[in-house]
Structure formats: C-alpha cells, structure tokens
Design goal:
Layout: H1 2-47, H2 52-57, H3 67-76, H4 81-113, H5 119-130, H6 138-147, H7 155-162, H8 165-178, H9 181-189, H10 194-205, H11 207-223, H12 226-231, H13 240-251, H14 256-293
Helix pairs in contact: 1-14, 3-14, 4-7, 4-8, 4-11, 5-8, 8-11, 11-14, 13-14
Length: about 290
Amino acid sequence: MSTVTTGRSLSTGGSGLRTNRARIVPTVILLIGALYCLIPVVWVFIAATKAPGELFSSFTFSPGSGLIANLKNLFSYNSGTYGLWAANSLLYAGVGGVASTLVSASAGYALAKFQFVGGRIFFGALLAGLLIPGITLAVPQYLLLSDVHLAGTRLSVLLPSIISPFGIYLCRVHAQGAIAQEMLEAARIDGANEWRIFRSIALPLMVPGMVTVFLLQFVGIWNNFLLPYIMLSDQSTFPLTVGLNQLLNQGSGSPALYSLAIIGAAIAILPLIALVLFLQRFWRLDLVSGGVKG
C-alpha cells in the first residue's frame, strides 16, 4: 500500500514539475520579447534628457542634464514648427481615426446582419485587401489624388485613411457576436427603422470593437510615414513622422538637430501611451458586462 502511494506521489510530483516548466518557458519568452520592445523606447526617453555633447560622448542608460534645454530648443526651432507638426498629426490621426471607425462600424454591421446581392463578393474583396501591404498602395493613391488636384493637401492624407479593410472585418466579426438577430427583429416589429436600430441598438453594443478599431487606426495614422511623405510637399502640412525625418536629414550637417529629433520622437510617443491608458477602460467594461451576462 505504501509502495503504491509513493508511486502516485512521485508521478504527481513529476507532472507538477512538467506543468511548472511549461508555464515558465512561455513566461520567459514573453519577458524577452517585452524587453526587446521596451529597451529602445526606454533609450529614447533617456537620450532625450542628454545634451548634444553627452549624447555622442558615450552610450549609457544614465539620464543627462539637457532635458530642459532640449525642450526649449525643440519648441522654438523654426518658429515653433514642431507644434504645427504635432497639430497636423493630431488632425490626421484624430479625424481619420473617427471617420474610419464610423465607416468600419457601418460596413461591418451591414455585412454581418444583412443579405444583399454581391455581399459575398464584397467580403471576398475585403479579405483580399487585408493581404495587400499598405505601402504598395501609396503610389497609386498619389496618382489618383493628383488627377483630382488633391495631392499636396491635407485631404490627400485624410481620405486614404478612412477606408480600413481590417477595421471593417473586425467590426463585422464583433457585430456577429455582440448583436443578437432576435433583438433586431424585435425592434423592427416595434416599428423602428433601420437607421434607428443601428444608432440606438447596434452602435452601443459595438463600442468595444469600435474602440479597438479607433485605437489601431489612430496609432497607424500617427505613425504613418510613407503616405504623407509622398503626398505632402509643404512643410506646414507635415505630420510628426515626416517632420522628424527632415530633422534627422538636416542633422548630418548640424549634429545638434539629432538631440531635437530624439526628444521630438520621445514626446510623440506620449499621446499614444495616454490614449491606450484612457481607452483600456472600455475593454474592461466589456469584460465585466460579458461576465455579468454569462
């Protein structure tokens, strides 16, 4: 009897060790991945505090003494051009993100809840659009917008960002899972038209998915470089990505501009961090409501 008990305890101990090992390995891999992603960001914030002489003297993670001077030089550079670039980025990402979210929610809801001629063809084309890298569309978009005399204007950056195949697909998937068909039928029986059903029933239920689409679009437009680089030629319309690239190019002749580009990049990260921290409460709300429904 004792032999059997001992054997069972040994087998239980062995399985416990294997379970712990299976948990530790993914955790270590995730930690390595997190460090790989975070170390460059940490270095940017630390390098932003260093004066030009400290930046090029040695590569260390110790803070420097030039943060205040770098901030003053950045916002006074070329009569405050950095602030104009930041305002342009906020315009492109904010307006483009909101417009893209509304279009994605409308199209995703229609694909999920309506049967219409050509719906499958449209959805197949949408899935094909997910496979096309956005970088390959920049030049054709420039040629199209140039034909209608919009190249070089802010609309040339805003218009291409409104349609997001991934956003439409994500909203379609979310609408299928979050909106019960019986609820829509009950609203139709009560006499509600389709616009009121979409506005009063569908949109509130799709808020978590719409927040996700908005965040992805905002970050994507904020970080987009190639499209505004091709479309825009006037410095007053540049977003931060193109403006900071211009600073880096000029830094080859004036090394002090490297410090401005680095602190400018560090400040450009802050709105994205603040946006993620602000919008995560919507995801938590969705998890809580899902737990209550269950």
